[in-house]
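Hi F.,

I've been meaning to write this up properly since the lab meeting, where we talked about keeping a consistent format for the predictions we share between groups. The idea is simple: the sequence comes first, exactly as it goes in, then the structure tokens exactly as they come out, then a line or two of notes. No screenshots and no reformatting. I'm using this chain as the first example so we have something concrete to point to.
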Amino acid sequence: MKKHISLSVSILASLLLVSAGCIAQGNARYINPFIGTDHMGHTFPGAVVPFGMVQLSPDTDTVPYSSGHGYNPDVYRYCAGYQFTDPTIVGFSHTHLHGTGHSDLGDFLLMPVTGDPKLNPGTASNPESGYRSRYDKKTEIAQAGYYAATLTDYSIRAELTVTPRVGIHQYTFEGDQPGALILDMVHGIYNYDGKVIWSSLRVVNDTLVTGYRQTNGWARERFVYFAMSFSKPITEYSLRNEEKEIYGGFWRRWEMNRNFPERSGRKVKAWFKFGLKQSDKLLVKMALSPVSEQGALQNLMTEAPHGSFDSYRAAAFRAWDIEANRLTIEATDEQKVVFYTALYHSLIHPSIYADVDGRYRGLDHEIHQGNGFTNYSIFSLWDTFRALHPWLTLMYPAESSDMVNSVLAHYDQSIHSILPVWSHYANDNWCMIGYHAVPVIADAWVKGIRGFDGQKALKAMVQSASYRPYEGVGDYMDKGYVTAEKSGSSASVTLEYAYDDYTISRMAVALGDSSIAKVFRDRSLNFKNLFDPATRFMRARTNNGNFVTPFDALATHGMGYIEGNAWTYSLFVPQAPEELIALMGGNKKFLPHLDSLFTMHLPEKYYANTEDIAAVGLMGNYVHGNEPGHHIPYLYNFAGKPSATQEVVRKILTTMYHNSPSGLCGNDDCGQMSAWYLFSSLGFYPFCPGTDKYELGAPLFKSASISLPGGKLLEIDAPNLSPKNIYVKRVVLNGKTLNRHWITHEEIMQGGTLLFETTARPSN
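Output, unedited:
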């Protein structure tokens, strides 16, 4: 029998604060509470369950996106609402984005206080001017599904846990001052004056409050509803609208700021008192809904019907424990922390976006019923098509099927009749480039997931790739490339369209449609239209066919690239690496070029003004902190030098992922950075999602096991692995030598033993 032990220890100042997963330790396992984030702190250290709609977390400041004078660059540090080094907590909000380079959310901030309630947050330099509080790092704990900290200004112990749709707070009032609770409906992440279009509150009875708000941010028209219950009856309350109301109507007959049960406006805030005394505990449960207040109430009654905080905390822990137990590794404690942290990160987004009855708000803002699937949102597809979605396809086929059905529902509801680009709370925020829902669908289909309509999916993929008004698609179809006049990222866009087109061709082949397969196989070769034989780089071209000049291969801005330069994007041809190598002069010329990428110097001027890149994410001119190059280390496999892949991948694994407050070298971008680590540390990687192959590298651990869907077990063994023995001499699958540099999805799903024989000397 397996023994499960939970560590309940204070967070050390040198470690960041979120949960990881199960860590094998002899015959026992435990949940490690420490986690790393990216170098800008874009991970929220709160309570969440796998794929949960609620991400309950402390927010540590109120830096605005704009104060009316353009973009405020300081706000970038607060993409997830939390900074490890901040001395105060503003409150606890219920929705957060994980590791993104832009942001939104931060809905329905709650803050327990004592004394006379204040309705402004105050400042970090003068917390007493508002409701925020200092907190003691030594009292801060974060475990799987649990967060706690002591608010020292109020002597309140705050504890958080969750169900998929309900945030659960327990506040213990340890001082001798009467307690109260603040609800700030104006607070948000990437906030600005006017972001809240409308909000409303209703005190239904002395233990139930409902409400909603509509915001205009990254999601331009976003509705979130809530139902909030208390374990103690309200004795007194105040609902206020802090904007100047031009029209008052006949509401003026009421004393609306005291014990009046409804309030609406753009700047609504509230406080509630409960007659709390010293050592009293207040349990607060806030359920969210994308549909209605009634939907939120149904979510509350279904998922959180009783009053035991500890039982909800234990259930959240078990949910993570189940997922973590699906993978075991033989490794150092430090490696285990990093590995299970990555696993935790990989299971946050996409997130459930539906009520318990299956209803959800669609892209058309009508209410839809998810018949046969659970609807999801938060699809950062430009990032996550690369490794995060293939990880979910491998380990979570049922959830992946729901996710594909969710993007197909988006297609049904789209006024443009196309698949999402960046799906976000019943909106498309149109962030980044490409039509990368396409490879997510293709990857699921070619790897055997059949919980969605394949023919409908292919139609949606073709429609999305043929929608001429979208970022140069018309020119791309006519000329074979996106012109510099149509897009400032035209070279990147062309290369990513070409890859996406290849995955459409693979989907069509799988469905037996040879005509569509040929059209998109031909389109997938459009990368050749950007190749400049004089410089041997992929370059942006103008409408008249000329390459954009002047040209700087190290620059991103003005060169037709996005989040990468010519060195990075000239290697983005995952659909045809052999043809890319031939185009660049064969292995003899390609290998030195690839070596140079990892060894050359990239002057600071090329990334100094880029928010999401820092020196910690660089290996020469290879930028692991941004996604476009994540496949590049595996290109050596195709050029006859897999030992170089093994060496570079290991260096990235051991130098760019740490157990510290800056444990990632770039934005995790909804789990993409972490999924790269998971795959690569196990010894294989989805080089070209949309195909059934994974490129082989070398595992980071002497042994690992994966409990696969369907009940099979894959054991990964590297008995001779050591810091010196990092090169693979032979790979053996179930007793048969793999005389190739890849393994198929079906071979993995059959389970068995994957043996890596390692040595200290490269075999090629």
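Notes:
The chain has a mean pLDDT of 93.
The CA atoms of residues 127 and 133 lie 6 Å apart.

If this format works for you, I'll send the rest the same way.

G.
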